[in-house]
């Protein structure tokens, strides 16, 4: 008897197949990553996928459209004379704190001198200049299309003065002499934001100018091994752009999103586990290109997603890790990976956060009783003696209006913290900050006054730059926001 007859029928059958036929049989039983091509979709299913895709891709479109908006500028400059903007693979620096009229990025910070610039590593690798900052705190935020950090450059990393190279995922060129380190991105598009701490004094405003003159970014073709210097206070100006809403510039449009989606998917290859998601999104785009009615339904669903899912994430009480006294925080900023909810929430409320070891953020929209903070009331925030935010860099408490921008006030004060050298401590060593619309009647308290918008909702925001272990480990959290008696 043939030994084939002693095997189970299925095994004998496979042995009898030609090698090519056996391979085809095995391939036919493998799981397909995503939908089969040319599948017809119902509108309800298209809406389901469109909703998920729009939420997933919102942060990517936000960063990609910043690249497109400024890529053809003739040179670095200041938009409206107050906001640093630059052509692709270049950056512009401020020479002072950012002004309250700025609307390109929510939750600006008046503790640092900012720089900003989009990168397109598919066009060219990019050289980052690091001057000698001395003892001054500084950090360069370098993020990819997903708003994840891919370069550790800053005082907390012991970064030395010199030249650093940013390259795309597929770059295979030769690293020129004089480059200290190469950082490889997972995507071609990204954003770079230098932050350099400055005390709120005339003396430090003057002292910082020679330091920030060495901050720069440019394509590899401009690199000659010599440190370039720029007087950023003398930059040309571009016309201002109005956000039209009082809030952040609208970087993501539901009407255009699905036309932009293929470019986003091509720029940001799938992370592990995302292959089927990418295949599903690509199939949906292909179906929409063949069916105008289906595309119209997808756009309609994107508009609903913007209103129902994305817009509420502007407010800090809508998301985050809960802490005592109604504060919230996040623990994976600039390292979101596949945490799609937190990535989009942070992108909507305050995009371009640093990694937690660089900066720890604490968000607050409620008082200790759970009531919405509003300028009709008066509040105090008291840090007990010895319990200011434990940092190696600096800390601050910033106030934002409901749109997460500065609320204009007569004394032009939007934050208090390390930069302020005239804060008054209480007799017991504690520090009380007075948050209210009108100046405190006691003149001794006015140095500690953080002006609030009259009769309007607002939020508070604690930054701890280069935080100590007590902050990153959760042993220290901010004190309550108390309604004043």
UniProtKB/TrEMBL annotation:
Residues 1-22 form the signal peptide. It comes from the Bacteria. The keyword Aminoacyl-tRNA synthetase does not apply. Residues 89-219 form the DUF1254 domain. Keywords: Signal. The keyword Signal applies. It holds the Pfam family DUF1254. Residues 359-468 form the DUF1214 domain. This is DUF1254 domain-containing protein.
């Amino acid at each position: 008897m043939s030994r084939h007859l002693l095997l189970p029928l299925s095994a004998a059958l496979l042995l009898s197949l030609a090698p090519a036929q056996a391979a085809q049989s095995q391939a036919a039983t493998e799981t397909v990553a995503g939908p089969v091509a040319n599948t017809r979709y119902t509108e309800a299913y298209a809406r389901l996928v469109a909703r998920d895709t729009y939420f997933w891709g919102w942060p990517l479109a936000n960063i990609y459209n910043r690249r497109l908006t400024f890529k053809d500028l003739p040179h670095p400059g200041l938009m409206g004379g107050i906001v640093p903007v630059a052509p692709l693979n270049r950056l512009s620096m401020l020479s002072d704190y950012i002004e309250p009229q700025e609307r390109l990025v929510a939750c600006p910070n008046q503790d640092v001198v900012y720089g900003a610039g989009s990168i397109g590593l598919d066009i060219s690798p990019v050289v980052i200049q690091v001057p000698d900052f001395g003892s001054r705190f500084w950090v360069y935020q370098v993020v990819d299309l997903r708003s994840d950090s891919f370069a550790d450059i800053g005082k907390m990393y012991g970064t030395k003065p010199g030249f650093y190279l940013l390259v795309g995922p597929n770059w295979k060129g030769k690293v020129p002499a004089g480059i200290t380190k190469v950082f490889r991105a997972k995507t071609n598009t990204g954003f770079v934001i230098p932050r350099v701490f400055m005390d709120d004094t005339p003396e430090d405003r003057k002292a910082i100018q020679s330091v920030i003159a060495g901050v720069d970014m440019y394509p590899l073709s401009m690199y000659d091994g010599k440190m370039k210097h720029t007087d950023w206070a003398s930059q040309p100006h571009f016309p201002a752009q109005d956000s039209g809403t009082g809030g952040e510039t609208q970087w993501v449009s539901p009407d255009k999103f699905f036309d932009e989606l293929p470019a986003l998917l091509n720029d940001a290859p799938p992370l592990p586990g995302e292959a089927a998601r990418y295949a599903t999104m690509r199939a949906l785009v292909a179906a929409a290109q063949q069916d105008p009615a289906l595309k119209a339904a997808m756009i309609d669903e994107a508009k609903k997603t913007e209103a129902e899912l994305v817009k509420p994430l502007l407010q800090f009480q809508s998301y985050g890790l809960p802490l005592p006294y109604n504060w919230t925080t996040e623990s994976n900023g600039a390292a979101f990976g596949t945490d799609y909810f937190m990535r989009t929430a942070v992108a909507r409320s305050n995009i371009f956060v640093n990694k937690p070891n660089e900066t720890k953020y604490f968000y607050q929209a409620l008082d200790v009783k759970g009531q919405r903070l509003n300028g009709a009331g008066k509040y105090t925030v008291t840090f007990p003696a010895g319990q200011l935010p434990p940092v190696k860099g600096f800390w601050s408490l910033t106030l934002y209006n409901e749109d997460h921008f500065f609320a204009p006030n007569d004394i032009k004060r939007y934050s208090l913290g390390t930069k302020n050298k005239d804060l008054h401590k209480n007799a017991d060593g504690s520090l009380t900050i007075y948050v209210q619309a009108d100046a405190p009647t006691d003149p001794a308290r006015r140095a500690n006054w953080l002006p609030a918008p009259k009769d309007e909702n607002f939020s508070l925001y604690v930054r701890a730059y280069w935080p100590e272990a007590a902050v990153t480990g959760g042993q220290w959290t901010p004190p309550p926001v108390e309604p004043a008696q």
